[in-house]
Specification:
This protein is an alpha/beta fold and 758 residues long. The chain folds into four domains: 18-170, Response regulator (Rossmann fold, 3-Layer(aba) Sandwich); 176-330, GAF domain (Beta-Lactamase), CATH 3.30.450.40; 340-487, Alpha-Beta Plaits (2-Layer Sandwich), CATH 3.30.70.270; 509-754, EAL domain (TIM Barrel). It is 44% helix and 20% strand. Helix 6 (148-170) packs across helix 10 (299-330), helix 7 (176-186) runs antiparallel to helix 8 (191-205) and helix 12 (370-377) crosses helix 13 (379-396).
């Protein structure tokens, strides 16, 4: 972490120092004393096991043990000056016992030299930044992190720090300024502020004008896509204008060459006109201090600077700790964009400023089907795609537009509505995104929420804007054809109703209350035979009201409940088919609708197979209906899925044929047995268009492809007659029977056998 200081040089430079070790009972050998404070005996045993025979800086360890903060205090009062490191549990008798003991160590016992490493078994718990700073805490680790190697590494760093601080404290000449300057530097959290302070203190220490710079490498190594080149983090004198710029931009090439030699050798350099200090850190971070000097440093100044460099290294690590904590608190590590917390803070600050924000708004977007892309291409490619999306969004809008990643594939923007136009946002996603050799087209849905003041003239909070944008986004997701939606007050009421309906639907599924399957007959109008039935789900809510499938099915699809509902309907239909066959109805075919989401779910074919086996229903008497839109999504993939179903003996029907934009060449590749003419075409059927309309076309296409046809929504005898004239025999609709519960259908079936036709 810092420059090693030769022991002999320090002894020559400093006055006689007190020894900082103790006899361990084995002949006067010097040891490092470590106090372990934890209320868990297993932690003590595990630590002793991990540290057995361990040696740090050529000395063995002497372990002291305390099971409570009170016991630890007694040990510290008796042996505090001899203890180098305290391994301290955060949560013991009370949730704050460990941190309270830290206050006792520093403020009451005034043990400023011993090093403190906090440990916790609760990964989500972390001390406040002020606690880490004010109480000079060396490190913070979860207990799971402290394996043998990491524990020894952490102790080595802490003991080295302890030794260095004791060396400085024991010095009788020239070190007062070092201690004071170190104290000031430890209070500087930001890297730029810390770097500037280092240069100022070094210059004062050497009685020179501040003239130099500090370069950092991997100062944000906890962020992905690290740039390992050197950046000027702080500067003084003529170099001040170069802060936050790459070192390679510096015009003075000799300085770059000198710093490069320092980096390559990983050692400090002392040239005639410059001093370069090399400070290494954790995770590959490094800092290089370049100071312009008029002449070579004399031995005293050089040794003094080496001692000071120790403190710089410790301070550098502290700055790194603060930067990491700050980054993860306010930024998304993957995309480096602000996170939700930072976004809300920035936008709230803007909304509370005198700037007129009435023409501003929030755009909330997420990527449609991104989880499927992630699963198909792998998480690394998915992460690369999210980074590509972040870069493109950032480049598409001016700096005045705030951009953040909320969670997963959700991004949010805040800015003038004249800039955040829906078409401008959608245009960002026109071209495919490239990641790891893949060119992936991505589609988004977006919800917009404008900044609107209330009756008192108060502007909304950012959290309210995000809520409204989420409501608008949810509204857009209800219709696959809609890509964006703007918030309105009416949506909030609709959203509340959807949430209430969703909760009731969830309860209906879990407790099997109110959900039933109704069956609508499919009749051969020529032979007067019952060909089959279509299974249709119905739901009566807790208030006894029938809820339209047009209301709850889209909600179930949006929330993913459709998978459970679809599987339940299929089980009920199979069991009912078996009961009808036992009653002598051997020729019935039961048709069951399959939603797009259910069809795409992993394990769908296995669910069909296991349900058939459990119920004993014959597969050749089951027909699965898929919509035309599902059939056309990925024809090859859909065809493979359908062939797997056909291999079980299942029949396949294409529902809503003619409502989409499918091509005949694509349809010909699918193993379809039957086509269903949508009710909207049957409703428009009349004698004038019967011979040339779309129903006639569908029938001819089906006949040429060897598929049978059933017409839906047949409600009048005139429609039935026209369909027969066109060659359509199988019909379904109110003319023959409404959807009925199983017991009602049994009654209808008895009447049908007695008097088949209406």
């Amino acid at each position: 972490m810092s420059i090693p200081v030769p022991r002999d040089d320090l002894i020559d430079f400093l006055d006689d120092l007190d020894e900082d070790g103790r006899d361990d009972g084995r002949g006067g050998q010097l040891v490092w004393t470590v106090l372990i404070v934890d209320d868990d005996d297993e932690v003590h045993h595990a630590t002793m096991f991990a540290l057995q025979n361990a040696s740090v800086l050529d000395r063995p360890l002497r372990l002291l043990h305390a099971r409570s903060a009170g016991e630890a205090r007694s040990i510290l009062e008796a042996q505090g000056p001899e203890i180098a490191v305290v391994l301290l549990d955060v949560v013991m008798e009370t949730p704050e016992a460990g941190l309270d003991l830290v206050a006792v160590i520093r403020r009451e016992l005034h043990l400023t030299e011993l090093r403190i490493i906090l440990r916790t078994g609760q990964p989500g718990y972390a001390p406040e930044l002020s606690v880490v700073r004010d109480y000079d805490i060396n490190d913070y680790k979860t207990k799971a992190e402290l394996t043998h190697v990491r524990l020894v590494t952490a102790l080595t760093a802490a003991i080295r720090s302890f030794e260095q601080i004791r060396t400085i404290s024991a010095s009788r000449r020239g070190l007062d300024m070092i201690v004071k300057s170190a104290s000031e530097l430890f209070g500087r959290r930001a890297l730029a502020s810390f770097a500037e302070g280092v240069l100022t203190q070094i210059a004062a220490l050497l009685k020179l004008e501040p003239e130099g710079l500090i370069c950092v490498r991997n100062s944000v190594s906890f962020v992905r896509d690290i740039d390992s080149s050197l950046t000027i983090a702080g500067a003084a004198g003529r170099f001040r204008a170069h802060v936050d710029r790459p070192l390679s931009d510096l015009a003075e090439r000799d300085i770059i060459t000198t710093i490069s030699r320092c980096v390559e050798s990983r050692q400090s350099l002392y040239d005639d006109h410059a001093t370069v200090l090399y400070l290494s850190g954790e995770a590959g971070r490094a800092a290089i201090v370049y100071l312009a000097t008029e002449s070579p440093l004399d031995p005293v100044d050089r040794r003094l600077l080496e001692v000071f460099a120790v403190n710089i290294g410790v301070g550098f690590e502290n700055v790194g700790l603060f930067e990491r904590l700050n980054f993860f608190a306010y930024f998304d590590p993957l995309t480096r964009l602000p996170n939700r917390v930072r976004f809300i803070e920035e936008v709230d600050q803007f909304l509370n400023s005198p700037v007129v924000a009435s023409d501003y708004g929030v755009a909330l977007l997420d990527i449609a089907g991104f989880s499927e892309v992630n699963n198909a291409l792998g998480q690394r490619t998915g992460d690369a795609l999210l980074m590509a999306v972040a870069r493109r969004l950032k480049g598409a809008f001016p700096e005045g537009v705030r951009l953040a990643r909320l969670v997963g594939d959700s991004f949010v923007l805040f800015g003038p509505l004249t800039i955040l136009q829906p078409q401008a946002l959608l245009k960002v996603f026109d071209a495919p995104f490239h990641a790891r050799g893949h060119g992936v087209p991505l589609r988004i849905r977006a919800g917009f929420a404008p900044v609107i003041s209330n009756a008192e003239g108060m502007l909304p909070r950012t959290s309210d804007l995000l809520r409204d944008a989420a409501v608008a986004l949810g509204q857009a997701k209800l219709d696959p054809a809609v890509r964006y939606c703007a918030y309105s007050a009416q949506m909030a009421g609709q959203a509340r109703k959807r949430v209430a309906m969703l909760n009731e639907l969830r309860a209906a599924i879990d407790f099997q209350r109110g959900l039933t399957v109704h069956y609508q007959p499919q009749v051969d109008a020529v032979s007067h035979e019952l060909r089959g039935v279509e299974a249709l789900i119905r739901w009566r809510n807790e208030r006894g009201e029938m809820v339209s499938p047009q209301d709850f099915i889209p909600l179930a699809e949006y929330t993913g409940l459709i998978g459970e509902i679809g599987a339940w309907v299929f089980r009920q239909a199979c069991n009912q088919l078996v009961r009808w066959r036992q009653a002598g109805e051997d020729s019935l075919i039961v048709a069951v609708n399959v939603s797009a989401l259910q069809f795409r779910q992993e394990g769908f074919v296995d669910m069909i197979r296991s349900t058939l086996a459990a119920s004993g229903a014959p597969a050749d008497r089951i027909e699965l209906e898929i919509t035309e839109s599902v059939a056309m999504e990925e024809v090859d993939k859909v065809a493979a899925q359908l062939r797997a179903l056909k291999s079980l003996g299942i029949r396949i029907a294409l529902d809503d044929f003619g409502c989409g934009f499918s091509s005949l060449s694509s349809l010909s590749r699918l193993p379809i047995d039957r086509v269903k003419v949508d009710r909207c075409f049957v409703a428009e059927l009349d004698p004038d268009n019967a011979g040339s309309g779309i129903v006639h076309t569908i029938l001819k296409l089906a006949e040429g492809s060897g598929m049978s046809v059933v017409a839906e929504g047949v409600e009048t005898i005139e429609q039935a007659d026209l369909l027969q004239q066109l060659g359509c025999r199988e019909m379904q609709g109110f003319l023959y029977g409404r959807p009925m519960a199983a017991d009602e259908f049994d009654i209808w079936l008895g009447h049908f056998h007695e008097e088949p036709m209406v």
